[in-house]
Amino acid sequence: MRSRYEEVDFVRDCDVVQVPHGHTVRIEIGTPAVITQALGDSYTIEIPTLGGLYRIAGKDADAIGKDPPLSETEAAAERNAPVDEARVLRALKHVYDPEIPVNVVDLGLIYTLSIRPLESGGSAVDVQMTLTAPGCGMGQIISSDVKSRLEALAGVAEAHVDVVWEPPWTAQRISPAGRAKLGLE
Q1: Each residue of 88-105: b (16+ CB within 10 Å) or e?
Q2: Tens-digit pLDDT profile for residues 100-123
Q3: φ, ψ (nearest 5 deg) of residue 8
Q4: Which pLDDT value is given to residue 159?
Q5: 25, 18 in Cβ contact below 8 A?
Q6: pLDDT tier for residue 2 given thresholds of 50, 70 and 90
């Protein structure tokens, strides 16, 4: 399988996150970059003038000339769907570790998920998740992506994400689809 890399230039200044350290870096308009991964709502890019990999959030996709994550049609369909486990998991399949081309659901990072109605209306979604390694510099970014993705679902009034370390994550938690993507089958 060949990877397809796409060369792009920043069309506006944009904050990106250095992978795997998690540091925010300001990239100026006109800076050339190479998209190495475009999965879910974010992009992983290499910036030759700086070296290393960086992550661009979906909300900033326009900075490299890309469209935002959801089209209006998709967003309208999501607004009319009930908040249930299947819909929440579908949404979370758009969240990726910038270094691994498998979403957090198929990686087995989501341990528990609960949905409860709120008296004030809407639902609260509570997630317990883990990361592939305790010292992951992108941990805060990934858990924040999960929270943002949940909060963007129509009908979700609150989202709570807790990163836990018990039980420790192992590669056995990767789904068959994730294993196939990683060539582990």
Answers
A1: beebbbbbbbbebbbbbb
A2: 888 999 999 999 999 999 998 889
A3: -140, 165
A4: 96
A5: yes
A6: very low
Core vs surface per residue 167-185: b (16+ CB within 10 A) or e: eebeeebbeeebeebeeee
Here the tokens at position 166 are 């018990």
- pLDDT tens readout for residues 65-111: 876 665 445 555 555 567 899 899 999 998 988 888 889 999 999 99
Q: Would you call 97 helix, strand, or coil by DSSP?
A: coil
Encoding tokens for residue 143? 């858990």
CA atoms within 13 A on the CB side of 91: 28
In order of start, what are the domains of the chain with their CATH numbers?
6-64 (2.30.30.40), 72-182 (3.30.300.130)
Distance CA 70, CA 83 (A): 18
The answer, as to whether pTM is greater than 0.90, is no
- Residue whose token pair is 């795997």: 20
CA atoms of 17 and 34, how far apart (whole Å): 15
